[in-house]
Amino acid sequence: MTEFAEPIEMMKHRRRLSTQTGVEESVEDDPVENDAPGPPRSWWRRLAWVGALGVLIATSGGAWWVGSHTQSPDQAAARAAEPVASWITAPVEFRVLSATLVTRGDVQPLSQTTVGVPASVEGTPVLTRTVVTAGDIVAEGDRVVEVSGRPVFAFQGETPVYRSLQPGMTGDDVTALQQSLVRLGYAIAVEETGNFGATTKAAVAQFYEAAGYQPIPTSATYPADRAIAERAVSDATAALSTAQTTLGNGDRGPARSVIAQADEAVAAAGRALNAAKANVTTDVALAQADLDVAKAARTGVENNPDATPDDWNAANIAVSVADVALGDTIRDTRDAVDGAQAAYDIAVLARRELDQPVDVTELQAAIDTAIGARDDAVNAVSELDRVNGPTVPQGEVVFVTTTPSRVLTAVTTLVADPTTANGDAGETTSINSLVTLATGGLVVNAAVPPDQVGLVTEGLAVEILDELTNTIYPATVATVAASPTTGTGGQLGHTITITPDKDLPDTLAGTNVRVTMTAASTDTEELVVPLAAVSSGADGSTRVNIIDPATNEPVVVKVTAGLSAGGFVAITPTTPDTLSVGSDVIVGR
User: Fold this and answer.
1) What is the CA radius of gyration of the chain?
2) The pTM is what?
3) Is there a domain that residue 444 lies in?
4) What is the domain extent for residue 352?
5) Which string of b and e fits 458-481 if b means at least 16 CB within 10 Å?
6) pLDDT tens digits for 471-500?
7) Which of 95, 167, 199, 565 has the fewest CB atoms in 10 Å of its CB?
8) Does residue 232 lie within any of the structural domains?
9) pLDDT digits (tens, 9 = 90+) for 256-314
């Protein structure tokens, strides 16, 4: 048989189709092709068959269309009438019911510290040395970055650095610095705890020098200020010594030589007084004698008949001169006696003063003043020493909660533009975020809507899903914020912190994961129905409704409702065996 041969039954079927459709088809008894030129007879038979089939399909399709678009009046009325209401039911299930809350969370370190440009950097900051890279482990005392030649070290402590630490300061931050230095092997006196004193200054200086840096001094003028203060101490000390010598001399009284000199002065003054008194008699007597001689000479001239007028005039002048000389002598000798008397009185008074006790009140006051000046000068030097020395500028030490810590991010270039915090090539880098250090394990921070926060409690079991690797990590809710806050997406929620049961891999840091919490669950499998199936009766009972097969009307079944979750509620029939798995409960109509 050739490829154009047909089974006998098929040919008979074609004949029937031809009769039905009115298409004439000549069918040869011999199924073999003709030898005549042109298409074989079997080909023509196929063509006739295809045409008949097409007519049949068209006829059937037209009949279907007419039937589907033609209806009787009764059919039209039935279709226009409202449909008969029917009960909407749902089957009773038997399973464990769980209240599950699903949210998203960010994987972050338990604590992280950001390293910025230290306050000791002046001018435009320059990243002079990259010390760590992401993933490095940083121990206590390690340098993490260097900016403009100034280092930043990581110390362990709970107190954040909010100021530059200088000699003379006190506080918890000073204590944290001291504790770190002691752990690193530097000696600090116990009595200095919390006080940046002498041993702390020495430890800070040694730490910086060991790291290859010079500590920054508190004051650039300290050497000159101290020299001035030391001179003030020297001057005050000299003034005190002079005052003490004066007081000492006053306590002992005048020296014997001083007394001897005063005695001699009294004696000399007495002799001078006596001489002055003696001179009064002698000098006046001599002047009186000269006057008497002059008068006698004049009398002789008066008695001499041969005396001339000139002689007479000369005698008168001599008497006048002698008289004046007598007056002068009387006055001069009296003044000399008065002067000698005064000198004698003074000498006697001076001698008497030497015998009087010395009043040292003023001398002691002078000493007290000198002591105060000296002490002030000494204290000024001590204060300069106390508040000057090596300092720890703000930002050159950062405290992390625990060490060693892990480097999350670290920049390799620095452009002083605080507007962004991206360290990628060609973009600016924040001067406040050069290195980020992570301490403690990774945790997940998520948010729960206020209407669902009641389902979440501390200690609640959690599943963390890493959707990239499809790995589930068991965890526990550690904290639940009491008050809601607005997140970055503008949604209000309570922040929760989730702690994994085992450490999460570092590769998850910074990723967003799925968080699933089972807030409540039935202990065993229970009957469960949709919430829409449960209602309350006038008597306060809880009930569901099932359909009575005989009347097709609802029948009340009282139940006790249990846990509700996911749109379902666990129930227990008040009367046993009134409900079972597969029973249909009414949820609507």
Assistant:
1) 65
2) 0.52
3) no
4) 256-357
5) eebebbbebeeeeeebebebbebe
6) 999 999 999 999 999 987 788 999 999 999
7) 95
8) no
9) 788 889 889 999 999 999 988 888 888 888 989 999 999 998 998 889 888 888 888 99
